[in-house]
Amino acid sequence: MRALRTAPGLAEQLYSAVLDEICDGALAPGAHLVQEQLAERFEVSRQPVQQAMALLKADGLVEDVGKRGLRVAALDLGRMQHHYEIRAALDALAARRAAERAQADAAVARDIGERGRAILADGARAVRDGAPREQIHHDEVFHKLIYEASGNPLMERTAETHWRFLRRVMGDVLRHAETPREIWRQHGEILAAVEAGDADLAEELARAHIAGAAGRLAESLANKGAEKP
For residue 198, which of 71, 101, 56 has the smallest C-alpha distance? Predict the structure, then answer.
């Protein structure tokens, strides 16, 4: 049997590096991705580049353009709304379960509060520094805390599929649809409700947070016209 020779670590690093540039807007919709150039720039062989491109394509971030290879895909509003719809349900459930656990156990509430406030501080610092990539990272860390606090180990794993696509969308949210300070203010409200053990409020705030981001981004992009490469 032939041995498989792969470099999953390099492929994942390349995936993240290219995704960061898409999120930052450095790689705009329609930007042509030449695998040989990427391999040279990141000083790797073509194999991990091909693997990274396959991952990006599967997540709807890049698309084929015939013999010309690949390009950064335009933001698909329909797909975005489908992902956000599922994330709204997941995040609302996670916030409810986390609040229920906090209400039942003061130690759990303290842990959620302490860890959450540290993340909020990191997010606020990234906002002050005008660093979208760091804002996206801390945003994801905050939501992962709520998934973990829910006590359901499948929550984060289920959400990851949607996060892979929405990391790119969050860059557009920060650039076009919503001020970063408002995003973090909402995070603070969700954290306070969870820590207080108010399951109904936590669920409502989490759902509104995700649905609001999706709605404002859709409106903003509709107003400026669909992105066309």
Answer: 101
Q: For residues 7-28, give the mean pLDDT.
A: 82
Between helix 132-149 and helix 77-104 the angle, nearest 10°, is 50
Rounded CA gap, 21 and 156, in Å? 24
190 or 11: whose pLDDT is higher?
190
Cβ neighbours, 10 Å, residue 65: 13
Give the chain as a 3 state SS string.
CCCCCCCHHHHHHHHHHHHHHHHHCCCCCCCEECHHHHHHHHCCCHHHHHHHHHHHHHCCCEEEECECCEEECCCCHHHHHHHHHHHHHHHHHHHHHHHHHHHHCHHHHHHHHHHHHHHHHHHHHHHHCCCHHHHHHHHHHHHHHHHHHCCCCHHHHHHHHHHHHHHHHHHHHHHHHCCHHHHHHHHHHHHHHHHHCCHHHHHHHHHHHHHHHHHHHHHHHHHHCCCCC
Domains and CATH numbers, the chain: 8-72 (1.10.10.10), 77-224 (1.20.120.530)
State the pTM of this model.
Answer: 0.78
From residue 159, how far is each of 51, 151, 185 by CA, in Å? Answer: 22, 14, 22
The phi and psi torsions of 125 (rounded to 5 degrees) equal: -65, -40
Report the amino acid identity of residue 155.
M
Query: Once rounded to an integer, what is the mean pLDDT over residues 216-220?
Result: 76
What's the half-sphere exposure (Cβ side, CA atoms, 13 Å) at 161? Answer: 11
What is the distance in angstroms between the CA of the first residue and the CA of the last residue of the chain? Answer: 44
